[in-house]
TrEMBL record, chain A:
It comes from the Eukaryota. InterPro entries: Thiolase (IPR002155), Thiolase-like (IPR016039), Thiolase_acyl_enz_int_AS (IPR020615), Thiolase_C (IPR020617), Thiolase_N (IPR020616). It catalyses: octanoyl-CoA + acetyl-CoA = 3-oxodecanoyl-CoA + CoA; an acyl-CoA + acetyl-CoA = a 3-oxoacyl-CoA + CoA; tetradecanoyl-CoA + acetyl-CoA = 3-oxohexadecanoyl-CoA + CoA; decanoyl-CoA + acetyl-CoA = 3-oxododecanoyl-CoA + CoA. It comes from Saimiri boliviensis boliviensis (Bolivian squirrel monkey). Its main location: endoplasmic reticulum. This is Trifunctional enzyme subunit beta, mitochondrial. Gene3D superfamilies: 3.40.47.10. Belongs to the thiolase-like superfamily. Thiolase family. Heterotetramer of 2 alpha/HADHA and 2 beta/HADHB subunits; forms the mitochondrial trifunctional enzyme. Also purified as higher order heterooligomers including a 4 alpha/HADHA and 4 beta/HADHB heterooligomer which physiological significance remains unclear. The mitochondrial trifunctional enzyme interacts with MTLN. Interacts with RSAD2/viperin. It is found in: Endoplasmic reticulum; Mitochondrion inner membrane; Mitochondrion outer membrane.
TrEMBL record, chain B:
It comes from the Eukaryota. CDD domains: crotonase-like. It catalyses: a (3S)-3-hydroxyacyl-CoA = a (2E)-enoyl-CoA + H2O; (3S)-hydroxyhexadecanoyl-CoA = (2E)-hexadecenoyl-CoA + H2O; (3S)-hydroxydecanoyl-CoA + NAD(+) = 3-oxodecanoyl-CoA + NADH + H(+); (3S)-hydroxyhexadecanoyl-CoA + NAD(+) = 3-oxohexadecanoyl-CoA + NADH + H(+). Pathway: Lipid metabolism; fatty acid beta-oxidation. Its EC number is 1.1.1.211, 4.2.1.17. The active site is at E510. This is Trifunctional enzyme subunit alpha, mitochondrial.
Length: 420, 763
């Protein structure tokens, strides 16, 4: 579930080809969009909203993303977040006192650092006068941090915001059982030895059974992988299609890595270990190898496997966003403009992973754009079966009419947006 | 209302559960044209796998009948003969139904046990051939897979089921007074073990797919799919088929073994069952239990045990023979005819004869958060009705809300609901002390105390705040609806909805229409009742309507019998051994003596001498001494927390002694006592039909069995008259009339039936 969280920023500071970024549900349009839009007789003015400030991305960085349980396994989440923040400071040379606010998104909260944004910021040397808060919204948490920042700037509350995300799947908070916690809390309150003894006598061995954080949706008790497998089946996405798409993703990522295009990555010296310089989960395999894997969730006949899903990830990212006039005044050249975003939600059981299908046409319409205005889409999803299902949904009039309340499919030809 | 509260207690003891019918969506499959000559079954070939699709025409469900059977044999013969085909998948084209069971009408049409036995033997032969098929056959099960459908599925080499709520497996034959007659009694014990097989076949319970997987009844589960490029149900069936095809191929290629890994407990049980002594003990225990529960009134369970035993002890040839013979015998019994009649009646009472209402009820308001009010709320919120529960006091309201929550939470404990579903259902309920939001209400059901002036007050208050289209329903057990409607500004919208307690357990709803009630209000009330999962009878207004009215004379007789010196314990055992789920004296205690008194007085006034018999003074004295029954801890019995065996209340002796009347020896044998009770009940029921209170005998039977606990093995008062004989019944009544007078005078309609033996309530 959380693996993909921080990917939202992965390609942020790359070249103009990657200008328009779609993440899981929200999306942001960058400045380069204007160039594309101009062809369609769109001007910068049409994307600028009246009476709302222009908001820009100055820059963004991330730590290398690692498979959980590898080099970051002994760290805590705020260590990773701190690394991203110091990386950002170094990259942008922004004076710390200029930053008005810091927001981080995270999915599974480490109870010791429940406001991880604040702990990381203090450690990274930001002013202790700079407020920080942490948001959560499942996989989309870091984007929620970013759009929260957009809101603060747009409403005139702030001029400069640092937004980021962090997840450390190597360690998750495993708790004592409710019974044990209750006993411990009651013991705290007990005044006399007698009371304590009588409480202790209530102890049973099963109190020691630990309580794991749920990997399943609370409302449906279904895990994401299971839901993705059902979704792929609902849209009749074959195992081969999924493997091919996963291979494509890994190959492209590998190419980008080899060509040095992942300029958002900042090296991280892990205490007591070597300096980590690149992502370790990019592993293009072969279709034959991938075909050998057994399904990971719906056994024994499902289609979602370890090879066509994202890995459980440790990593953090941070991004500097500013009001346009502030950035220009400080001499920055904005990398992107944050124009619009859209959050959607659907039935958590059968449409949990169909966000892109609903959000894409809506945000384009909201921004007054058509598919032709867009050079490249970027969707961040955890399972190739899932994104392929979304493509099929977006390409279906039937789905649009029956489930999205639209007359026709949102935007045709999404499927052509990726090479088959 | 209060009276029915207690009457409902019967439900707790009632063992009778009957198949619940469901809605199905029809789909069409295109098949290669050459094969379209068959109407029930077709098959197409995908690679080397034959996909056999069952789709009975013009029906929501597939049933095993003669045509389907013979077409199945044809299809299988073609598949076995084909070189191209190496395996097969058996699937239904109807979402929501694999095969719902054998065709009951086919059995009902048989005149002799031999005919039925022959049907059984034909099915046995087909299924045995299927079981021995060298080409593996995978049953892909989505929806109900019951009775003969399950027997077909267990004859296949492999079973895959959709894991949804509609998919249930089971052998409900016992509920129809018969047994699984197509090899089920022989295969199930081998497949799931003897104890589990007994449990399935003797209770007839529906088993959900996930449970069936654990038991070993199915081999794989398929998760239902959400929307994709087709409607979810359609795609789920397709997916099930795709998965089944991969397994069929795997089985043909010997890559998958049809054998299942058994758990430790299962292995131990299986081992234990190889020891003859253990087996004998199991048979003995099961038989004892069955005898105790059925009191020898239901022949089917004992025969099931017998047939299973024969198969295990003497080999399957003997087992199959015994199965088909016993099947034939059972199908001819009165009990089986009675139970099948109830099944048909129930199907009938699940339909809205008034058609669809103009406006769907979405917002429901309930007045009074007592046992009934909260019970009605519980069965409404879980069907998605937005429900406002209003009470006069915060404590009363809180108690009602807790009752609803507890009802839902108990389902969570049984894993029938998740805690999230519970919370989301519970949020359909708003508790309130005022009439806020009543302007949105489409229907108001009042369940306030049984007092006419209170009901009048409530009706007037409510009519001031509800919209014009809103239906006002009164949940009362005896107050005539027309009297309640007398103060209404819009009597065409007033109707009676008589629920039975506990509402979430009792299936019956008695709807009462007055002469002024509009057709649309009736349609609305029935639609709401059906949504709440009720079996519905619609009756005309009158004192006691149908159910309470039938019960009252019987209760009067109970008092007389007690006055004549019959021990309450003895009376209880006489009534339960006749087939009533609760003994007559216990019933009075459960109903509440004060309530019984109230109803007896009201109906006594309305109907006069015919409702006489016992001296109501008995009830009056009990009330004055505080012996109100279970609720006060004392009635005919003494009730104590945690004490299972209840003792007689010795303080009753003096009351009974003071009212003692001499028994009349000519009508006081055990059998006479039983018949004095039953004939008064039946006579009154027939009179209700005669007077037009009841529209059909079927509704009368359903109302009596599901609402009042009339012995299911007798099929209800009307079925009982048909099977027992009107003449014999009239003779009995006349004998009692001679002893006691008018209370036993047979009504005209019953007399007519006695005079012309061809006249039957059911033709």
């Amino acid at each position: 579930m959380t693996a993909i969280l921080t990917y939202a920023f992965k390609n942020l500071p790359t070249t103009s080809k990657w200008a328009l970024r779609f993440s899981i549900r929200p999306l942001s349009c960058s400045s380069q969009l204007r160039a594309a839009a101009a062809v369609q007789t769109k001007t910068k003015k049409t994307l600028t909203k009246p009476n709302i400030r222009n908001i820009v991305v100055v820059d963004g960085v991330r730590t290398p993303f690692l498979l959980s349980g590898t080099s970051y396994k002994d760290l805590m989440p705020h260590d990773l977040a701190r690394a991203a923040l110091t990386g950002l400071l170094h990259r942008t040379s922004v004076p710390k006192e200029v930053v008005d606010y810091i927001i981080f998104g995270t999915v599974i909260q480490e109870v010791k650092t429940s406001n991880v944004a604040r702990e990381a910021a203090l450690g990274a040397g930001f002013s202790d006068k700079t407020p920080a808060h942490t948001v959560t919204m499942a996989c989309i948490s870091a984007n929620q941090a970013m759009t929260t920042g957009v809101g603060l700037i747009a409403s005139g509350q702030c001029d400069v915001v640092v937004a980021g995300g962090v997840e450390l799947m190597s360690d998750i908070p495993i708790r004592h059982s409710r019974k044990m916690r209750k006993l411990m809390l009651d013991l705290n309150k007990a005044k006399s030895v007698g009371q304590r003894l009588s409480l202790i006598s209530k102890f049973r061995l099963n109190f020691l059974a630990p309580e794991l954080p749920a990997v399943a949706e609370f409302s449906t008790s279904e895990t994401m992988g299971h839901s993705a497998d059902r979704l792929a089946a609902a849209f009749a996405v074959s195992r081969l299609e999924q493997d091919e798409y996963a291979l494509r993703s890994h190959s492209l990522a590998k190419k980008a890595q080899d060509e040095g295009l992942l300029s958002d990555v900042v090296p991280f010296k892990v205490p007591g270990k070597d300096t980590v310089t690149k992502d370790n989960g990019i592993r293009p395999s072969s279709l034959e190898q991938m075909a050998k894997l057994k399904p990971a969730f719906i056994k024994p006949y499902g289609t979602v496997t370890a090879a066509n899903s994202s890995f459980l990830t440790d990593g953090a990212s941070a991004m500097l966003i500013m009001a346009e006039e502030k950035a220009l005044a400080m001499g920055y050249k904005p990398k992107a403009y944050l124009r619009d975003f859209m959050y959607v939600s659907q039935d958590p059981k059968d449409q949990l992973l169909l966000g892109p299908t609903y959000a894409t046409p809506k945000v384009l319409e909201k921004a007054g754009l058509t598919l032709n205005d867009i050079d490249a889409f970027e969707f961040h999803e955890a399972f190739s079966g899932q994104i392929l299902a979304n493509f099929k949904a977006m390409d279906s009039d039937w789905f649009a009419q029956n489930y999205m309340g639209r007359k026709t499919k949102g935007h045709a030809m999404i499927v052509e947006a990726y090479p088959k | 209302m209060v009276a029915c509260r207690a009457i409902g207690i019967l439900g707790r003891f009632s063992a009778l559960r009957i198949l619940r019918s469901r809605g199905y969506i029809c789909r069409n499959f295109t098949e290669s044209s050459a094969l379209l000559t068959r109407t029930h079954i077709n098959y197409g070939v995908k690679g080397d796998v034959a996909v056999i699709r069952i789709n009975s025409p013009n029906s929501k469900v597939n049933t095993l009948n003669k045509e389907l059977h013979s077409e199945f044999i044809e299809v299988m013969n073609e598949i076995w003969a084909s070189d191209q085909i190496r395996s097969a998948v058996l699937i239904s084209s109807k979402p929501g139904c694999f095969i719902a069971g054998a065709d009951i009408n086919m059995l009902a049409a048989c005149k002799t046990p031999q005919e039925v036995t022959q049907i059984s033997q034909e099915a046995q032969r087909t299924f045995e051939k299927l079981e021995k098929s060298t080409k593996p056959v995978v049953a892909a099960i989505s929806g109900s897979c019951l009775g003969g459908g399950l027997e077909l599925a267990v004859s296949c080499q492999y079973r895959i089921a959709t894991k949804d709520r509609k998919t249930v497996l089971g052998t409900p034959e016992v509920l129809l007074g018969i047994l699984p007659g197509a090899g089920g009694t022989q295969r199930l014990p081998k497949m799931v073990g003897v104890p589990a097989a007994f449990d399935m076949m003797l209770t007839g319970r529906n088993i959900r797919a996930d449970r069936a997987k654990k038991m070993g009844l199915v081999d794989q589960l398929v998760e239902p799919l959400g929307p994709g490029l087709k409607p979810p149900e359609e795609r789920t069936i397709e997916y099930l088929e795709e998965v089944a095809i991969t397994f069929a191929k795997g089985l043909a290629d010997k890559k998958i073994s049809p054998k299942r890994d058994k758990g430790l407990v299962e292995k131990l049980t299986a081992y234990a069952m190889t020891i003859p002594f253990v087996r004998q003990q199991v048979y003995k225990k099961v038989e004892e239990k069955v005898r105790k529960q059925t009191k020898g009134l239901y022949p089917a369970p004992l025969k099931i045990i017998d047939v299973v035993k024969t198969g295990i002890e003497q080999g399957s040839d003997a087992g199959y023979l015994s199965e088909s013979q016993k099947f034939g015998e059972l199908a001819m019994t009165k009990e089986s005819k009675a139970l099948m009649g109830l099944y048909h009646g129930q199907v009938l009472c699940k339909k809205n004869k008034f058609g669809a209402p103009q406006k769907d009820v979405k917002h429901l308001a309930i007045l009074g958060a007592g046992l009934m009010g909260a019970g009605i709320a519980q069965v409404s919120v879980d069907k998605g009705l937005k429900t406002m529960l209003k009470d006069a006091t915060l404590t009363g309201l809180g108690r009602g809300q807790q009752q609803v929550f507890k009802g839902l939470n108990d389902k969570v404990k049984k894993k029938a609901l998740t805690s999230f579903e519970r919370d989301s259902i519970f949020s359909n309920l708003t508790g309130q002390l005022d009439y806020q939001g009543f302007e949105k209400a489409d229907m108001v059901i009042e369940a306030v105390f049984e007092d006419l002036s209170l009901k009048h007050r409530v009706l007037k208050e409510v009519e001031a705040v509800i919209p014009d289209h809103c239906v006002f329903a009164s949940n009362t057990s005896a107050l005539p609806i027309s009297e309640i409607a007398a103060v209404s500004k819009r009597p065409e919208k007033v109707i009676g909805m008589h629920y039975f307690s506990p509402v979430d357990k009792m299936q019956l709803l008695e709807i009462i229409t007055t002469e002024k009630t509009s057709k649309d209000a009736s349609a609305s009330a029935v639609a709401v009742g059906l949504k709440q999962g009720k079996v519905i009878i619609v009756v005309k207004d009158g004192p006691g309507f149908y159910t309470t009215r039938c019960l009252a004379p019987m209760m009067s007789e109970v008092i007389r019998i007690l006055q004549e010196g019959v021990d309450p314990k003895k009376l209880d055992s006489l009534t339960t051994s006749f087939g009533f789920p609760v003994g007559a004296a216990t019933l009075v205690d459960e109903v509440g003596v004060d309530v019984a008194k109230h109803v007896a007085e009201d109906l006594g006034k309305a109907f006069g001498e015919r409702f006489g018999g016992g001296n109501p003074e008995l009830l009056t004295q009990m009330v004055s001494k505080g012996f109100l029954g279970r609720k006060s801890g004392k009635g005919f019995y003494i009730y104590q927390e945690g004490v299972k065996n209840k003792n007689l209340n010795s303080d009753m002796d003096s009351i009974l002694a003071s009212l003692k009347i001499p028994p009349k020896s000519e009508v006081s044998s055990d059998e006479d006592i039983q018949f004095r009770l039953v004939t008064r009940f039946v006579n009154e029921a027939v009179m209700c039909l005669q007077e037009g209170i009841l529209a059909t005998p079927a509704e009368g039977d359903i109302g009596a069995v599901f609402g009042l606990g009339f012995p299911p093995c007798l099929g209800g008062p009307f079925r009982f008259v048909d099977l027992y004989g009107a003449q014999k019944l009239v003779d009995r009544l006349k004998k009692y009339e001679a002893a006691y007078g008018k209370q036993f005078t047979p009504c005209q309609l019953l007399a007519d039936h006695a005079n012309s033996p061809n006249k039957k309530f059911y033709q």
